Amino acid sequence: MEKENKARTEEEPGMPNRDLSEQIKEATKDSHVRAENTELMLSYKKGQVTLAQYKLLLCSLHHIYAALEEELDKNSNHPGVAPIYFPTELARRELIEEDLEHFYGQDWREKMVVPKATERYAHRLRQIGGENPEFLVAHAYTRYLGDLSGGQVLGSITQKSLGLKNGNGIAFFTFPGVSSPNRFKQLYRSRMNSVELTEEQRTGMLEEAVRAFELNIQVFDALQDLVSSVQREADRQTHTSQAEQLNGTQRLSKTQPFPGELITSAPLFRMVMGLCVALATVCMGIYAF
Question: Hey, which of 29, 68, 106, 216 has its CA 20 to 30 A from 146?
């Protein structure tokens, strides 16, 4: 009965809201499930992530975190942002750059490829950074705590799937400034819950959290489409190359028959032919028997 009364109280208009972190978790529950079941994330769960998938993912993550962290830096003194501003503990941009340099070399910036969905995500971050800085909390919560929660597992899967050694290429998954992920997540949620919001801002925050998940889903789907497109092109080129080689071989066999004198004079060829004749004789004898 006490629990029922509490639930009714929370649902009654005008009564104090639950913690912001819990409200966001509830509002994004369905979107969270959808994000985890994108083809890209399912590949991760199965331990089947490819190097092409991971490299493209890093490119998009760099684009997204560059926008997010630039806007957090600009608005670090904003009352809606300051409580959750932890650049030392959470910043991802420089770590992603380490990984990009590992895979692409020092000129990685010139080799980056991102889909339109990634550009839309970055644009949205810059837009709210200028118009509604407090909404950055929804994106920071979705991205940072998601990475902090699943980073260790996904990092291990990536390392094993791609055969990476000595931590090279997986700096993104590490949080050197966080000694205890669980304690830090508790602190982060507590700081989130301390942000003062009007009812209108709170509603907008929940809508933005759902938008954050939708933008992530769009990026995941776009990356998988890009990987599939690259693979199809690679398969097409391989098929074309094999066909050209086959045609070249056929033309060669028609225009340049094997010299008879070479056949008869090659000791190895005569030995192989002798063995073939002997085997054929034995096989015929067995078949006749």
Answer: 106
Could you tell me if residue 133 is left (phi over 0), alpha (psi between -120 and 50 degrees) or otherwise beta? alpha
Are 114 and 209 within 8 A, CB to CB?
no
Pair of tokens at residue 87: 């650049």
SS3 180: coil
- Over residues 256-286, the pLDDT tens digits come to 544 444 333 444 334 333 333 333 333 334 3
> pTM for the full model?
0.76
Instruction: Indicate the burial class of 139 (C-beta count within 10 angstroms; 0-12, 13-18, 19 or more).
Output: buried
| Listed residue (215, 161, 146) closest to 51, CA to CA | 161
Rounded to the nearest angstrom, the gap between the alpha carbon of residue 11 and the centroid of all alpha carbons in its chain is: 38
**Helix or strand (DSSP H, E) at 132:** none
What whole-number distance in Å separates Cα of residue 36 and Cα of residue 33?
Answer: 5
Residue 123: pLDDT band with limits 50, 70, 90: very high
Pull the structure tokens for residue 91: 């910043």
